[in-house]
Amino acid sequence: MQLIDYSDSFLSVVPAFLALALAIITRRVLLSLGIGVLVGVFMLVGGTPLDAAAQLKSMAVSLIWDGNDWSLGKLKILIFLLLLGIFTSLLTYSGSNQAFADWAKQHIKDQRGAKMLTACLVFVTFIDDYFHSLAVGAIARPVTDKFKVSRAKLAYILDSTAAPMCVLMPVSSWGASIIATLSGLLVTYHITGYTPMGLFVSMSLMNYYALFALLMVFTVAYFSFDIGSMAELERTARESEAGDSTESSHGQGRVYALIIPVLVLIFSTIAAMLYTGAQALDSFSLLGAFENTDVNTSLVFGGVCGVSAVLLCTIGTIAGKDYPHAVFQGMKSMIGAIIILILAWLISIVVSDMHTGEYLSKLVAGNINPALLPAILFLLGSVMAFATGTSWGTFGIMLPIAAAMAVKVDPSLTVPCMSAVMAGAVCGDHCSPISDTTILSSTGAHCNHIDHVTSQLPYALTVAASATVGYLALGFTQSALLGFIVSGIAMFGLILLLKNKQNRPA
């Protein structure tokens, strides 16, 4: 089917920006992405309904069939998400979260230890932000309550270690979806010199917001750096009579039933990544194996192993009649993410066929210094994710645009621009009161949602300002290291400024 060429027309931006505008106005990402896809398809075929239906069918089929053979990478990602939902649900039903919390309360000795435990748990729960916020909230809440850490501080630690860590790790639901998107962008825009995994790692090293958000968390946890409303909430918690945890033990949970399945999931996935990557090498090397690994297959293997470990470790802690319900609830929890991901893949195809990036690049080339692109895309991604409450929807709309613009304007800025989109999506999601991760962090901490949003915002904006300066440095110098250093200096300076202001008598 002959598609209309919009590479020289302002109409090329309509589907992507319609999806963006609707998402901001309605805050309904699924509806907005769906309308963007449909409008783009009708424009490409000239408005004929039958041709539009045929084109939409062709696009959907292309997700699993490349014209000559099955292409199952995206299907494997969806399977992994379902397995992850089942994994999380079974752990919750077994009572293993509370069993670990009861154990931790006996070994933590002070408030700093309680906060550092909460922050450090992300290194074993980074597989998914939902899993992290809910599981770590259940594990750490009784411990932080015992030492009079405010629920707002707990919610902040949960939220600031959820998405920022997940977006940096390939062995996570976020990493898997981003790598899947990148694999398509590499082909669509003929980006050479990178594998999907290699590109993901390079982008993660330039994700200044995520990196410094994690650094800020540990600074806050260790040094009790309290600013804004967080200072008052912490003071109130310290002056309370006692920790007010209302947790009750399930009675059947086992500590090892949490630890072993998580370790099995992580290490089996890493082992599969090394094995599949080694198959493409003449001589094994760790870096080479990770760069050539089959991430999608490895994640499915790890997911199967993780679920199997949960089933074995929770024998006797979950009633037989509850297993089907736990499995169903786990799969159901991932349906929204799966639909967003499918629509994101479809709108990526539409953006490519509409030549949106090619048209925008012509505008940018004549009006905007290309060195400003990383900072501009970071801020744009932040605004969109804040308004819509989703990082994944932002990835779906913005990554193809960023890749197309950078390839046309200055190919050396391709990775910095896509990194800036990733960072901006996490930043906006982190700040947004309607973000699912923000809501789940409040839920996991049993914290008033508005208290969480308002107390977290000063920290998030501090990191965002530092990252913006870093992306300006990255754009002008194309040095990832210099951008990182500049971001660090900016954040250190802002922390000192805010600390001095907080200590100043009213």
How would you characterize this protein structure?
The protein starts with 13 loop residues before the first helix and ends with a helix. It is built from 25 helices and no strands. The longest helix has 29 residues. The protein is mostly helical.
- Give the number of helices: 25
- Profile the largest sheet: none
Q: Compute the gyration radius: what is it?
A: 23 Å
Q: What portion of residues belong to β-strands?
A: under 5%
Total strand segments: 0
Q: List the uncertain runs.
A: 243-251
The shape is globular
Structural class: mainly alpha
Brief write-up:
The chain has 506 residues and is mainly α.
Which features does this protein show?
single chain; about 500 residues; mainly alpha; about 75% helix; about 0% strand; membrane; transmembrane helix
Mind sketching the topology for me?
Elements: H1 14-26, H2 29-45, H3 49-62, H4 73-94, H5 96-105, H6 111-120, H7 122-125, H8 129-146, H9 151-166, H10 173-188, H11 196-205, H12 208-223, H13 229-239, H14 256-278, H15 286-291, H16 295-313, H17 322-332, H18 335-353, H19 356-367, H20 373-388, H21 391-409, H22 414-431, H23 436-445, H24 449-477, H25 480-503
Helix pairs in contact: 1-2, 2-3, 2-18, 4-10, 4-16, 4-17, 5-8, 6-8, 6-12, 8-9, 8-23, 9-12, 9-23, 9-24, 10-11, 10-18, 10-21, 11-22, 12-24, 14-16, 18-21, 19-21, 20-21, 20-22, 20-24, 21-22, 22-24, 24-25
